[in-house]
Amino acid sequence: MRPNPTWTRIETDQLGSRMLPGEALYGINTLRASENFPVSNRQIGELTPLIRAMALTKKAAAAANWRMGKLSARKAEVIGRACDEVIAGQHTTHFIVDVFQGGGGTSSHMNLNEVIANRGLELMGHACGEYEHLHPIRDVNRSQSTTDVHSTALRIALMQGSPALERALLSLADAFAAKGQDFAGILKLGRTHLQDSVPMTLGEEFNAFATALRLDAGRIWSVTQDLTGLNLGGTIVGTGLAAQPDFAEAVITELQRLTDLPLRRAEDLVCAAWSSAELVRFSGMLRGISVTLSKIAGDLRLLSSGPHGGLGEIALPAVQPGSPLIAGKVNPVIPEMVNQVAFHVAGADVSVGMAAESGQLQRNVFEPLMAHCLLTSLGMVESAARIFASHCVQSIRPLQSACTANLSNPETLVAGLEPLLGQATAAAIATAFSEGQDITSLLREQFSLPVDKKE
């Protein structure tokens, strides 16, 4: 397995020379960054969607530069092949920079440039580090900068990951809707302020969960459309310095072809480099979805509480034992997981907002944190919704006897009878019922109402 410990190579930069494992695909920039930021023990190679999207961007750039006559066909070919390997998930162990890093993503970007260059060199029959044949900056990074590449890749990664989230939410909504149909005939007590309220059906409660999730899923498309405007070709601050005049149009056209996404050049490249507003909106969307999921999870935990001392109106599936000390105890572990995912996403949303606000002047140096938070949250919310459906919602059972028993209370009677008898009469019946009198006898004898007990 690479890197081969039996030989080494020397690379030199403006700070001096360093020794690297001979077959390491990363280079001296990556080595320095890995030594500077041993922070979280989570490397950028674990942010697979971002690495894949960055490689797509590099492949598109190489093709555009070749078409414009700025890169030889051979170099464009090997860069493209190296990118394809990265896109396919190869060479992950060579992306060694920590996700928490200074430099606005430069370390991640150079890690990718060096991996592509060195893998391209191998494909050309050269040794890693022989950059006179294929250079990570002059060739792989031609007409690009970290500002536009990292930003573009993050937006592509979020757009590519959003359909899976939408599918997971709609699948979960379908699971709740199916239960809503199954539970349509089960009357139960509605509750407000954690106090008894008016009657409803268990089906109505579950259908409301489904509707909320579908509304959230429906918002995803509009939020992702904000991500389609790219600053690619704007280079460092959006002015296009060091890029060919037609590069932006050429590379975005190529990216459209590679990704099948409706990508476009941002209307104002300087603003696109300066602002992270669309990332904040995307983060807010994730937080909103997680809030919906968490509220549903909390309701299910409460409705299933018991089995003897709680509401006990539904039974959640038993997926694992609940206690090493209490035999037979089963806990609502899936809803609890969903709650915790939501708490994490809320914290990540705060981080994204702080990072977006704190990026001074022409670029935001805190985009690596935003990438980590957004992509992690996106993956977690999608997984939580999918697991919620398959491991919990699809197997929920109603406990109809508890639902019926909980309906027998004075407040419910007042609410149910008031439209028919008026508030004063309904209140009098409720008072008598609370004192122990039989409701059927009350209605028949004192108020001369022919009431069937079931009604």
Automatic annotation (TrEMBL):
Gene Ontology molecular-function annotations: aspartate ammonia-lyase activity
Limits of the Fumarate lyase N-terminal domain: 23-347
Pfam families membership: Lyase_1
Protein name per UniProt: Aspartate ammonia-lyase
GO biological process, one term: aspartate metabolic process
NCBIfam families linked: PRK12273.1
Assigned EC number: 4.3.1.1
GO CC aspect terms: cytosol
Family matches, as PANTHER family: ASPARTATE AMMONIA-LYASE
Keywords on record: Lyase
InterPro entries the UniProt entry points to: Aspartate_Ammonia-Lyase, Fumarase/histidase_N, Fumarate_lyase_fam, Fumarate_lyase_N, L-Aspartase-like
Top-level taxon in the UniProt lineage: Bacteria
